[in-house]
Amino acid sequence: MVVLSHGFGCDQNMWRHIVPELSRTNRIVLFDHVGSGRSDPAAWDESRYASLDGYADDVLQLLDGLNLQAVTFVGHSVSAMIGVLAANRNPSLFSALVLVTPSPCYLDNGMYHGGFTRDDIDELLASLDSNYLGWSATMAPVIMGNADRPELGDELTNSFCRTDPAMAAIFARATFLSDNRADLAEVSVPTLILQCTHDAIAPPEVGAYVHERIRDSQLVTLPATGHCPQLSAPEATASAIGRFLARST
Amino acid sequence: MNSKPVRMNSKPVRQQTADTPFAAILEDNIDDLYDNAPCGNLSTLLDGTVAKINATLLQWLGYTRDEVVGIRRFADLLTVGGKLYHETHYAPLLALQGEIAGIALELRAKDGSRLPVLVSSTVKTGGDGEPQLIRTVVFDARDRRAYELELLRARQAAEQDRERLQNLVSALQASLLPHSLPTPPAMTTAAHYHMASPDQVGGDFYDLYPLDGDRWGFFLGDVCGKGVEAAAVTALARYTLRAASVYDADPVAVISNLNTVLYQEYRTSGHRYCTVVFGVLSSPAADGTRTAHIAGGGHPAALLTRSDGGTSYQDTTTGPIVGILPAAAFTATSLTLHPGDTLLLYSDGIIEARSGGPETMFGQDALREAVSTAATANAPGVIAALISVLADLGDSVDDDVALMALGVSGVQQP
Q1: Residue B227 needs a FRET pair 20 to 30 A away by CA distance; which of B5, B63, B165, B359 works?
Q2: Is pLDDT of B9 > 70?
Q3: CB-CB neighbours of B108 under 10 Å
């Protein structure tokens, strides 16, 4: 059983290029985090989703609700840390973790180089503010509340990754201002770390840091650039996950 | 061939002969159009490495061609925040859709200065459908961004104004209601006011106050309409009822007095009529029983829950709507409230809620059902049950709702 968890900025569409390959040998669970994609806007709670713990709680609720066990949790970007938090809270549900371009801390902190400063994150928030990306206040309830009728949203420009900008800003803060470095040492399940050769958000040193802190982990560097290898190099990403699954389950 | 850019404002436009426009078009060759277009043109490899860039964009950035081509990625030309946005939104969407348009980003020039731009990209595919490269156009958006900042400021100002208005409305609404409802000896009391809109003060009102000895005056009413003018009439109605009952607490006298006062304003633009139930609770008898002497004008019937559980509407509408007839005739009625009985006064907002779509109202039967099945039959219990009914009705309650319950507990409270 493989649960695919998208990161900040998009929704479960992020996985569409590798789902066909992975689903040949595995059952797949796809979902949108609350506040992203076609999640129910009524489920949004500003304080719950202001920290990654709220998202990790949701993952555990999801596993519980679907009665899933022995799960391989594949988390991209911030969802890698969401998976770490969930697996640390209830390791018995997880058989393995796959962390795709993870970073336990995006901000520079003493000797640790996350790559960003507080000002950089504020700049990102300003970018979010000036780009509603196809979101409009009048259409949002229609789009987000009708998972079974996606055609309702088709008249908007971007059909993927629509997000209410107010929710996106809170997810962005939860993502880029969190520091989960201490949680890495607690991970007790076999873990695969996937990183790219060039990634402006999670550079190779950060991937190496994660590898060093998680005891039972292996690090694979994909011949890919950018932060989303499942889009830029889907075959390599799917086969690295497939090899890991074949060995760990 | 002239390779210098043609600048619109550099020379006055000359009178042209018939063949000069054609000559000028011939002169505008494709290479020159690419290089000196009034927008930045950029082609990158799939990993973002710049493969081709035009003179316009290089000039905006302050870089030479050699400093960019084959060395920098498109994201490297952005501010750090823009780069984060590019990696988390722009690049994934471009990969998923094959195109993306009109995204606001900021370029970071060689000298550190920033240039707001609007960016669009398409993925160029080869004959086999495989992506080959990314074509990007970049528009100078300084004016556009300044305009958007104005819009943003206007929106923030509007939000602040709305917040001030809502504070004002809730303060005004609160001033029309008692700060807290008193509890006469051996009684339970509770009230609730539901505002249909935070932007508009409603016209419902209620009160419960001591008269003399252990007699108490109470009323609940509804001025027609909403807004400041209705609120002014609501204040007038509330103080008229209270003042009149001090001189003569006879319900017919009190409600007739209100009718006269409201009718005097009949020909003015601020005229409003109202519906109201006014009553006086007698001092309790030895067994705790109280009598309510009531007069009502045009207001929905009060609902009485007996200690044995029976719940029924009482004939408390003893006259016409208050303020529309010069000499309205009101009569009085009496209800005996035994220990364990609870009297509910309410405004029509709750029974007229469109609970079953636009055609179906919540209605008096559903209200009686909700009250008779309340977990606790005393005043706080009845109001709590109705607060949860209002929550379930949600947006279908499109008018304000006032609720007041008076229960005789029969046990002398310390």
Answers
A1: B359
A2: no
A3: 18
DSSP for residue B70: T
Residue tagged 């009569």 (tokens):
B331
CB contact under 8 A, B79 and A128: no
Look up residue B41 and give its two tokens: 């043109």
Name the segment(s) of chain B with CATH classification 3.60.40.10: 178-408
Range B178-408 has CATH code 3.40.50.1820: no
Question: Lowest-confidence range among A34-38, B3-7, B291-295?
Answer: B3-7
**Residue owning tokens 């797949």:** A28
The partner residue sitting opposite B85, judged by closest CB among A124, A158, A225, is A124
Q: Per residue in A9-45, is it b (16+ CB within 10 Å) or e — as a string?
A: bbbbbbbebbbebbeeebeebbbbbbbbbbbeeeebe
What tens digit of pLDDT does each residue of B346-375 get?
Answer: 999 999 988 777 778 889 999 999 999 888
Comparing CB atoms, the residue among A127, A130, A226 nearest residue B91 is: A226
- Report residue B36 as tokens: 């000196």
Residue A225 dihedral angles phi and psi, to the nearest 5°: -115, 160
Q: Using CA atoms, how far apart are residues B18 and A219, in angstroms rounded to an integer?
A: 71
Task: Please give the residue of chain B at the shortest CA–CA distance from A7.
Answer: B88
What would the mean pLDDT of B300-319 be, rounded to a whole number? 91
- d(Cα A126, Cα A111) in Å, to the nearest integer? 28
B372 pairs with which residues across the strands?
none
Beta carbons of B381 and B326 less than 8 angstroms apart: no
**What residues of B are in contact with residue A226 (Cβ under 8 Å)?**
47-48, 87, 91
Q: How many CA atoms lie within 13 A of A139 on its CB side?
A: 19
CATH no. for B20-140: 3.30.450.20
Start-end of CATH 3.30.450.20 domains in chain B? 20-140
Q: What is the DSSP string of B151-216?
A: HHHHHHHHHHHHHHHHHHHHHHHHHTS-SS----TTEEEEEEEE-S-TTS---EEEEEEE-STT-E
Burial of B69 (0-12, 13-18, 19+ CB in 10 A): middle
Residue to substitute from B46, B76, B85, B115, interface A, most A β-carbons within 10 A: B85
> To which H or E segment does residue B25 belong?
helix B20-27
- Report, as an integer, the average pLDDT of B228-253: 92
CA dihedral B380, B381, B385, B388 (to 10 degrees): 50
Do B349 and B401 form a contact (C-beta atoms < 8 A)?
Answer: yes
Q: What is the mean pLDDT of residues A219-239?
A: 93
Give the domains, in start order, of chain A with CATH numbers: 2-248 (3.40.50.1820)
CB proximity A128 to B under 8 Å: yes
Q: Using a CB-CB distance cutoff of 8 angstroms, which residues of chain B are in contact with residue A166?
A: none
B194 and B395 in contact (C-beta within 8 Å)? Answer: no
ipTM computed for the complex? 0.85
Q: Cβ separation of B85 and A77 shorter than 8 Å? A: no
A120 contacts B80? CB cut-off 8 A: yes
Confidence at residue A233, expressed as pLDDT on a 0 to 100 scale: 92
Residue % of chain B over a pLDDT of 70: 91
